[in-house]
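ok here's Cytokinin riboside 5'-monophosphate phosphoribohydrolase:
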Amino acid sequence: MHACLCVQITGETVGEVKAVADMHQRKAEMARQSDAFIALPGGYGTLEELLEVIAWAQLGIHDKPVGLLNVDGYYNSLLSFLDKAVEEEFISPTSRHIIVLASTPKELLDKLEEYSPRHEKVVPRMQWEMEQLSYCKSCEIPGLKEGKPIIQAQRGTML
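and the structure:
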């Protein structure tokens, strides 16, 4: 199923306008071209994109900083949720540090400039780059021929 949003762009545009097939391609292209990610207070779309780039960092797909502009404590509840997930061992303590947090734009930009990944990656980046996140029939997957499961469910994971 494809959705088509036909939008007329009026006025001056900044940067390049690029047509893409779908939202997944849009996010992947933005991620490829970005030096960092910054989430401002927002709704479901912002939250979905924020969590996706955090997950991509944890998986080793990118090592770019992910900034959260916590204006007037807007994201405090989300941060408490993440801290609880660390406490319950759903998120590793080092992965919790993927998020760079600040309450002002200047402070956030300064912290993003100093960012250095401290988390362990779940999957080496090379595996993701082999086929640009697509299935590879010629790839050898350990355990597949032996009939062993290749996806291990973790506590709290729905398959």
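+1. The longest helix spans residues 44-59.
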